[in-house]
Amino acid sequence: PLDRALDAAAELAAALDALRAGQARRDAELQELRDENMRLAAELRASRREARRAAFEARNARERLDRAEARERFALEARRAAEEQLRRAREALARREREVRGWQERRRREQDDLRRHGHAPVVAELLPVLDHLEMAVAHAEADPARVLDGVRMVARQFRAALESVGVRRVEARPGTPFQPEVHEAFMEVHTTEQPPGTIVAEISPGYRLGDRLVRAARVSVARWPEDAPVPEAPGEAASAAEE
After folding, report:
1. Residues 6+ positions from 5 with CB-CB distance below 8 Å
2. DSSP assignment, residue 228?
3. How many whole angstroms separate alpha carbon 211 and alpha carbon 217?
4. Which of 203, 180, 201, 194 has the alpha carbon at shortest distance from 223?
5. CA nearest 203: which of 224, 174, 225?
6. How does pLDDT run across 21-67, given as a tens digit for each residue?
7. Does the structure show a pLDDT above 60 at 234?
8. Rounded Cα gap, residues 23 and 31, in angstroms
9. The whole model's pTM is what?
10. How far is the CA of 11 from the CAs of 2, 15, 20, 24, in angstroms?
């Protein structure tokens, strides 16, 4: 019985050792499983981080692409607007050129018409003067006394015709100052009756057409005689009297 007990104890110890060895193997396998699980969890976390980073980069890339597309659309719209403005500018320029050509053509026709018929109003005003002058000449032999009256009437009518087209006579009355802009000094008259540089007489009248001088008035101008004493100015005479 003792031997059997010892054999049973030995078998029990062997079984216990085998159980312990199996438990150790299972513990080792469990640790390997835990290690593998931790490694897989780390890889999963790394994969998730990579996925988030990839998603972030994809979102940024999409935003950059959207901005690039928006800039491209804006550039395309700006180009279309510029092309439209250029088209309108070209149309306006062509229209303006047509207007200028039309204006130049009208101006040329007006100038041609003015060259051909510009004197028609003046001629119409002078024709009655010529009619009366011819009538005066025709009746000169029949009634010479009326010729002078007819010529005077023709002269008045001629002056009225000139005034109707804007012709005015230049002022050149005796005693008025000589003005080289509108007067022509035909001769000098030595006199003490008028101040030097004033008009003595009008030899031929001058005329203006509006603001333009057509013909200067020919006049004689007063000049102080060399042998006559020069009169004192009013201011100098008063100073001499006070002294």
Report:
1. none
2. S
3. 15
4. 194
5. 174
6. 888 888 888 899 999 989 999 999 999 999 999 999 999 999 999 99
7. no
8. 12
9. 0.44
10. 14, 6, 14, 19
Alpha carbons 143 and 208: distance in angstroms, whole number? 37
Q: How far apart are CA 243 and CA 239, in angstroms?
A: 6
Tokens 């790394």, located at residue: 46
The owner of tokens 């009634």 is 143
E-state strands within the chain? 167-169, 183-190, 199-204, 207-209, 212-215, 217-223
Instruction: Choose among 86, 96, 160, 166: nearest CA to 125.
Output: 160
pLDDT band at 117 (very low <50, low <70, confident <90, very high): low
Q: Quick one: three-class SS letters along 176-197?
A: CECCCCCEEEEEEEECCCCCCC
**What span, in angstroms and rounded, lies between the C-alpha atoms of 136 and 154?**
9
Determine contact, residues 164/127, Cβ cutoff 8 Å.
no
d(CA 98, CA 81): 25
Write the pLDDT tens digit of every residue in 155-169. 888 888 888 888 888
